[in-house]
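Thread: Modeling a multi-component assembly for a lab meeting

Hi all, long-time lurker, first post. My supervisor asked me to bring a structural picture of a complex we are working on to next week's group meeting, and I have zero experience with this. I have the sequence lines for every component (603 residues in total). Could someone generate the structure of the whole assembly? Inputs are pasted exactly as I received them:
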Amino acid sequence: MQKEVRRQDEAGPVQAAGDGGGGGPDVGAVHRLLAVSRDAIKGTVSTNAEEFTTSARQEGGQ
Amino acid sequence: MMDGRRRSLMGLEKEYAAVGIGEHGQPLSHDEVAKRLYKKAGELYTHLQCISGGMGMWLGNGSRFYIDSGAHPEWTTPETGDPWETLRYERAADQMIQRTAEQLNAEDNDDTFRIHVNNTDYRAGTTWGSHESYQYRCEQKHMTKQITPLLVGRVVLNGAGGLQPRSYAPVFSLSPKVAALHGTTSGDSTRNRAIVHLKQEPLAGGGYHRLHLLCGESLRSDVASVLRVGLTSLAVAMIDGGVKPAVGVSPRKPLEAMQQFAADPTCKARVVCRDRRRRTAIDIVRHYVTLAERHEGESFMPSWSARLIELANTWLDALETDVANTAVSLDWSIKHALFTQHVEDRGFTWEQLAEYEKQAKERPVPSRSRDELLEGLSPSVRSLLEGRTPPRGFGAPRERLKAIGLSDDEATDVQRLHSELHEIDWRFGQLGPASLFDALDSAGVLNHRLVDQEEVDQATVKPPSIERAAVRGRMVAEHAGTDGLFAVDWSLVVDHQTRKYLDLTDPFTPSTEWQEEGSGELGPDLMHYREMYRARRQRVE
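Re: Modeling a multi-component assembly
Sure thing. I ran the full set together rather than chain by chain. Output:
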């Protein structure tokens, strides 16, 4: 949980404009997101998605 | 007033979806999960009990952790003075509950606990709230009317993103919570929820009201979180200052407009407003920001207005130019990019899935017995549903998909995709090592941070700038561990032993003098707490 995080208005791989980023169109940023997400999804999403979501929805809520 | 400017007061209540899985893969009851989380949090964090009793504690940073109806864990931020401060305490709450779950996981090799910040389970109709509170003084009717268009339009900035709940095929939604709303206003918080909640519970004296909103969603993006609270708080300040921002931009049918905006990832959908002109969600939000800019120097506007206005304009510009500009920054837009890739990887398109959904909705299917509904499910999923009535509509998607002409294999593929997208959404909102959002963040591919780890760490132990939160936090630090001799609530700290109390009804100038019970003029809010305190004391004695 105690991972290192950085404000994007201080440093980061995506050019930021103003407070909190929001630079112009950056197709490369989206490509990087999708490349990383495909690997992350392979690494985290279970082979039995139905079971995962069913266990979650048994819990109480609002 | 501070520096001649209005002081804002705001806060969040965040309901967490907590999941416990036993050693054989069986889900633990939500009562057990809640109790174990609560007990562990009590061991980890300095606290005092809530006056109302039950499972509720106040912590040294001024926040409150409790088990709410439905046996879900809920964390309330302390009162905060600006949206960046709110963000720090929201992230502190995330960190503290996740630490609690991780501690349980470390101590118990058999059971596993997971915490999610999602807002809907998609199928059974369960929702987890992310409520907002803003302090104001004007008439409630005026506030409700003038704030509603902003709440309708702001989903383009602060929708959590996800899927349309209880659909037959996956359909993207900017804000799945919208499907759980049933009108523009309502006094109900558990059923028939509406865009504006009319609860009259100021939790403060001095003639304040509290705008309580149920229509928002928990967010992972810092930018989206600050825009959500910041824009709403700016609008509250303007409305309290006599500005009427709703004039000209009120959708004729607010809930339908919100549903239309939530269903449109292009952000180009237009809705008819009361002046008969058609406006996009961006038009409506921009109108509020433009007015805020015009009034920025007025005394009724908070000192942080200019900073927030700049942030809002940046992101509205980004959306207006090309929604893809926000695909690494706003929750719904990040999810839309991820989901779209996964849909295409599985050989589908959103258009194709939307057509399946449209046709399936129109096609009636014969009713099925419980055994028929459970047929084909894996043994572990069947065991999860042991002794329970399957959720409404369970099993129906497959029948409907086949009824519109899909083969058995095609229906299976659509359903598998649907479940995978559900899981991606839930993994996105999960806290801890398995979190998809955190994986993306750690890889440096997101652009959203407005707070750093050191600030969040500080917020887990120190109260915010609002004076009564600071007093409350100090009382917790000084008297924790006194075995129920002290108790706390928003407007009151009581010492059961001496029968004295601290009056915190004024958030900005709370009393620091202990008063004898029965002394002083008590306002209605404090009288409410006094009755609660007396009832509790009778139980204790």
